[in-house]
Design a protein that fits this description.
The chain has 2 helices and 6 strands. It has one domain. The strands form 2 sheets. A 3-stranded antiparallel β-sheet has the order 1-2-3. It has a 3-stranded antiparallel β-sheet with strand order 4-5-6. The longest helix has 5 residues. It is about 10% helix and about 35% strand. By secondary structure, it is mostly beta strands.
């Protein structure tokens, strides 16, 4: 009988770039762009806050310092999700 380790299973996810237009996120073999226009929560925050990203389950990304969680579908197709939380800069 073998036991699986306890704890949260996280996948590899990495912020590969931050520009004046948005953030590049690499998850597995896919790199995705999160523009500040579509994802305003990442504009005007520290690099440390953006780099602190987790993937608690495949295709689900969480930035604990910003309390932002996004699924892969909304990142790939933000136009399909026109309603989003208001962000006051």
């Amino acid at each position: 009988m073998s036991s699986e380790p306890l704890g949260i299973s996280t996948s590899e996810v990495e912020v590969t770039g931050i520009s004046s237009h948005g953030v590049w996120l690499l998850a597995g073999e896919e790199e995705m762009f999160l523009s500040y226009e579509d994802f305003p929560w990442f504009k005007d925050v520290s690099v440390r806050e953006i780099l602190n990203v987790q993937e608690p389950t495949p295709g689900h990304f969480y930035w604990p310092d910003l309390d932002v969680d996004l699924g892969m579908e909304i990142i790939r197709h933000p136009e399909r999700f026109p309603l989003r939380a208001r962000h006051d800069a």
